Amino acid sequence: MKLTFSDRIALVSGAGRGIGKAIAEKLAEQGCTVICVSKNPSSCGAVADEINAGGGKAKAFAFDVSDPAQVKENVANILKEFGKVDILVNNAGITRDNLMMRMSDEEWQSVINTNLSSCFYLIRDLSRAILQNRWGRIVNISSVSGVMGNAGQANYSSAKAGIIGLTKTLAREFASRSITVNAIAPGFIKTDMTAVLSPAIMQKAIDTIPLKRMGLPEEIANLCVFLCSEEAGYITGQTISVDGGLAM
Ligand code: NAP
Question: Residues 107-125: what's their mean pLDDT?
């Protein structure tokens, strides 16, 4: 099936590496102009350069999505330069795993702010423009941890479960303007985030996955691109797992 994208501007957070990079590249392949956001200018810069060198259209914006002042300032600059944002993919995320009784305020707060509050800041600051546009796609990247819970990730699974609630509420709030809001819940995906896990933990995780392997960033990006297309216009408020069957 050929997907339809007409002159769309897409903002992808956490586009510097891993899943966000794959999403940015696939949206660019569909003809979208991609605003690549990451914390470090070198990572989003390299992805935008790669897209432009391959004949696509992209621009990098480096800022901290967990800081409301930086989000406000950068969203204003993006809207000034591009006039609109049609597609928003909230993908930036971090983990700071610890058992509950040892978890520090900083570990809790940084994970909630980066994974959940960032979605609130970006959606809020872009919502007037997206609502005026009367067409939009918002995809929030949750996690199997938000669906099932995961020992050692009270901060991360709370943030990712929060994303599911945010997604359902905004799907209802924005529906009358033809704006869909969905979440994707990836399982174990091969990126820098999971590269820190020990081989023993990795193997234990793989043993519990029905498809007996980790997923690839492109496998998350494929669904994300579909959800952002014209063809996905009747899907909203959903959390779709891409996890090799882990959260059945
Ligand atoms: P990753 O490889 O660690 O990349 C994370 C990206 O997010 C990087 O580009 C990073 O920017 C950016 N980022 C982090 N904090 C930021 C901040 N405060 N402001 C702006 N950008 C920030 O992660 P990933 O594995 O691709 O994960 C992407 C998303 O999928 C996350 O939300 C994650 O929770 C979720 N997820 C991942 C898995 C998995 O198995 N990998 C499973 C379930 C869900 P820099 O490049 O500048 O550092």
Answer: 99
Q: Note the pTM of the prediction, 2 decimals.
A: 0.99
Q: At what angle do helices 154-174 and 118-133 cross, to 10 degrees?
A: 10
Tell me if 3 is assigned to some domain: no
Counting the structural domains of the chain, the total is 1
3-state DSSP call for residue 134?
A: coil
Determine the atom of ligand 1 nearest the C-alpha atom of 40: 47
Give 185-209 pLDDT, tens digit per residue: 999 999 999 999 999 999 999 999 9
Measure the CA–CA gap between 38 and 125, rounded to whole angstroms: 17
Rounded to the nearest 5°, which phi and psi values hold at 246? Answer: -60, -45
Q: For residue 229, how far is its CA from the centre of ligand 1 (angstroms)? A: 23
Indicate whether 94 belongs to any domain: yes
Q: Residue 14: give the domain boundaries.
A: 9-189+217-242
The whole-chain average pLDDT of the chain stands at 98
Indicate whether 198 belongs to any domain: no
